[in-house]
């Protein structure tokens, strides 16, 4: 698997370069929102800022960093990767602007939700990820790229977690530690494990070939070990979503972490030259994020 990003062609282009690639739009939006949301959260904690939010402060914090920030990161990655997977034209220009506007509308709606019906806020917030899933599904199906339909399923679980979060918050339940939050977080974790296990070996192989570094090539992705590790992770996450406390859940999660730990060196095996690991030199953030999966701790809701 390769992800190719060509130089933009500006001749006759009627939109800024920011809207020529999905990663430019949504990675920048995610970064800006993370900084702004953290500043707002500090103000809420300090008691010197009042926001017209309908969620309680811990629920707003949890929602906006999982379903607000992370949804933009997921969109930026998929809008860049899917055209490479399918060979079909990427989303750009006006349609990309519209998708970004839907994401921004969701952030504003949740921020001023105290004056809006809960159902309306939920529909506005869910509009962008649903539109993204519909676009990605259309591209994958049209290209006959059926092996990537699993990504749509994981994105669907992420959307379902967001919808459940809104429902729990509207019902006065503890959404910041509820099933919706755990479902969304679980979907994000399994997506990282799935994508990371595919692109890191591919990037590593490409680096070894391009630099003629020699050494052992990484195993092809989605071998038996990968499938077993993903199944174990899925079982552990399902147990955590349903019943986060208790020894059975802890045992399943420990097993899942162990399987990811065993899978990790198999996926990033590469020749070491000059004390560098080629996978980390080609895709540092994905490599490091995937490498943290075996040591992830269950998040605790803010006090």
In N-to-C order, the SSE pattern is HHHHHHHHEEHH
Contiguous helical run count: 10
Share in β-strands? under 5%
Radius of gyration: 20 Å
Main-sheet strand order equals 1-2
Number of domains: 2
Give a summary of the structure in a few sentences.
The protein has 303 residues and is mainly alpha-helical.
Describe the structure.
The protein has 303 residues and is mostly helical. The chain folds into two domains: 18-177, no CATH class; 179-303. It contains ten helices and two strands. Strands 1-2 form a two-stranded antiparallel ribbon. Strand 1 and strand 2 form a beta hairpin.
Helix and strand topology:
Elements: H1 22-46, H2 57-86, H3 94-111, H4 118-142, H5 149-170, H6 179-211, H7 224-242, H8 247-268, E1 272-273, E2 276-277, H9 278-282, H10 284-291
Antiparallel strand pairs: 1-2
Helix pairs in contact: 1-2, 2-3, 2-4, 2-6, 3-4, 4-5, 5-6, 6-7, 6-8, 6-10, 7-8
List keywords for this structure.
10 helices, 2 domains, 68% helix, 2 strands, mainly alpha, single chain
